[in-house]
Amino acid sequence: MKVIWLFFSFLGLIFACENRSFDLYLEEAQVSIQEVLAHLAKECSFSVVYDDEEIGERLSRKLPIINIKKGGLDDIFELLFEVANLHYSYANKKLNLSILQTQTFKINYLGTNREGSSSTSVLINKDTKEQSFEGGTQGFSKSGVDIVSYDGFNFWENIKQELEELLGEDVGIVINKGAGLISIKGDQKQLKLAKTYMDTLHKRLQAQVMIDVKILSVLHSNTNTTGINWEGLYGLQNINILGASENSNLGGEGNLGNSSGINIIGGTKASRTYGLNIVHQGLSLNEIVKYLKTYGEVKSISNPKILTLNNQPAMISVGDILRYKKSTIYQNTNAQTTLTNKDSEYPSIFAGVLLDITPLIFGNEVILKINPSITKTKENRINLPALAFETPPNLTTNQLSSIIRVQDKEKIILGGLISNTSSKKESKIPLLGDLPLLSYVFSYSQTLESKEEIIFIIEPKIIHKKPPTLKSLGYEMLKD
């Protein structure tokens, strides 16, 4: 065994050990922590205080090969007690040692839970039960399709379970949701691991994404159209499309291309009328709209911008709340009279465009979970009643769901949600067209059938540490 100690000071040995530099060299791993600590305590004239027998056992551990040159007193303490897995504090010539210590972490997150669910059901036979004459029940089977999607985010409940799995169930964890504080009691290794985890978690939680959404309606002039042929977008950027690949596992026969900023998912080699396209930020919105106008009239339904936290759902709803009348009749019959009561309720349903987007940031990329839904009334009622519908309106729904990965500021174009619409065109000669008997002669009415396709253009923008400006969020100053 060979131990070499060399002590240096900046201005001489008259200064305390806190202001001196040390060289510590251990050639062989046969020296215990307690031996080094005793030598250092004698040299610097300080006392070591602890009240747990297990601390003495940990100080008896052998040290590995150590070589410290011009290190301070804290550097040596950090090294010794990292090996012993002990907490320490040094003040007034007294070194206090402990196994457990409590550290409080601050988390900037709301003390609420977020939950959401959506369901799509197509039932052929309803599962019901009826009373039979014999007193038993008769059941009917249910067949059809029932798709349920559930999203829940209970941060404060999950974080305690995650910390217990990471640090061990014997660690004391106290959570104050109202103040956003998490206190953890553990040894040095546990608190260091908790700090690393909490720092990473806090950084991920505070990341934000600005989602720029443009919802467009294309009224196709050709009623026999099968939708927009997105292959025309490639010509706007002079892009060479990669051919179809037999080894593709993306749900279609198409390959995932990445040429000059366009990615393609799905489709076939013979016909590339894709419903999902990822476009490089170099392709402007004006060029996309100009291309869409070659298929028919383009209208803007909505242009929302939503700023949301990482991995938190953003909801966009554009449409009408339709109410209808629901009447219930109650009858109470006795030996002499029959009493009838009528109760009316006004349930509501939504008709319009609903878009659910959840972003997840990875470096300079964003994974987006996108769920658009379009609901319309079958009757194409243009004028909504002042109070409520007398009967529940029949609805048609177009839905799709997709999870995609894009670069920051790349545009995602979702299309293919086509529905048949009808409108009524009327013209008449003033006064004469309003006469009861002559209105058919001096007026003209025609029902026009057309196809409408809803287009979603989604552009995620990662908000970096630098405060965003209006220009970086996509806003422009109006010019005279």
Automatic annotation (TrEMBL):
Q: Which parts of the chain are coiled coil?
A: none
Q: Name one Pfam family in it.
A: Secretin_N_2
Q: PANTHER family attached here?
A: PROBABLE GENERAL SECRETION PATHWAY PROTEIN D (PTHR30332), TYPE IV PILIATION SYSTEM PROTEIN DR_0774-RELATED (PTHR30332:SF17)
What is the protein's name according to its record?
A: Secretion system protein
Q: Where is the Secretin N-terminal domain?
A: 102-173
- One of the record's GO cellular component terms: type II protein secretion system complex
Question: Which PROSITE patterns does this entry report, sorted A to Z?
Answer: PROKAR_LIPOPROTEIN
Please state every residue range assigned to the domain named Type II/III secretion system secretin-like.
292-463
List the InterPro entries: Bact_Secretion_Sys_Channel, GspD/PilQ, Secretin_N_2, T2SS/T3SS_dom
Organism equals Helicobacter valdiviensis
Q: Which GO terms describe its biological process?
A: pilus assembly; protein secretion
